[in-house]
Amino acid sequence: MGFVKEFKEFALKGNVVDLAVAVVIGGAFGKIVTSLVNDIIMPPIGLLMGDTDFTSLFIPLDGNDYESLDAATEAAAPVLAYGSFIQTVIEFVIIAMAIFLVIKGINRFKKKKEAAPAAPPAPTPSEKLLEEIRDLLKTK
C-alpha cells in the first residue's frame, strides 16, 4: 500500500498539477497562435509577395514539375515543403515572444517583492555578550 500512497502524494503535488494545467493551456495557446499566423499574419504577407500562400511553396526533388503541393503529395513525390517550414518558424517566433513577455512580467513582480528590505539578522550569542559588556562599561 506504500507505493500507491507515495504515487498519490507525487501526483497531487502542486508542481505536477501546475504542469498539467500549463500543458493544457499551452495546447490551447498553440491553436490560437496557429490561427493568428494562418488567418491574420500570413495573408497580408502573401499579398505583399504576390498572392503567395506560404504553405504551397515547395521544391519537388524528383525533377518533375507539379502544379501544386497537393498534386506532388498525391503522386507520392519527394518534396521540400519549405513554405510550411517558414510558417512554422513564424508561429514559433510568436509563441516565444509571448512566453518571453509573460516571463518578463512575472519577473518584474518578483523583483518588486524581493526589493523590500529584509529584517536584520538576529545577533549571535557573542554579539549579545559584547553588547552586555558595553552596556556595563557605560554605566561605570
Structure description:
The protein has one domain (2-139): Orthogonal Bundle (Non-ribosomal Peptide Synthetase Peptidyl Carrier Protein, Chain A), CATH 1.10.1200.120. Helix 2 packs across helix 4. The chain has helices at residues 2-11, 14-48, 69-74, 82-114, 125-139; strands at residues 59-60, 79-80. A two-stranded antiparallel sheet has the order 1-2. The protein contains 5 helices and 2 strands, in the order ααβαβαα. The chain is mainly α and 140 residues long. Belongs to the MscL family. Channel that opens in response to stretch forces in the membrane lipid bilayer. May participate in the regulation of osmotic pressure changes within the cell. It is a multi-pass membrane protein. Keywords: Cell membrane, Ion channel, Ion transport, Membrane, Transmembrane, Transmembrane helix, Transport. Homopentamer.
CATH class: Mainly Alpha
- Major sheet description: 2 strands, antiparallel
Gyration radius, rounded: 31 Å
CATH superfamily: Large-conductance mechanosensitive channel, MscL, domain 1
Indicate the proportion of strand residues. under 5%
Low-pLDDT runs of 5+ residues are none
Let me know the average pLDDT. 82
Can you tag this structure with a few keywords?
transport; cell membrane; membrane; 2 strands; 5 helices; two-stranded antiparallel ribbon; Large-conductance mechanosensitive channel; mainly alpha; 140 residues; mechanosensitive monoatomic ion channel activity
List the helices and strands and how they pair.
Blueprint: H1 2-11, H2 14-48, E1 59-60, H3 69-74, E2 79-80, H4 82-114, H5 125-139
Antiparallel strand pairs: 1-2
Helix pairs in contact: 2-4
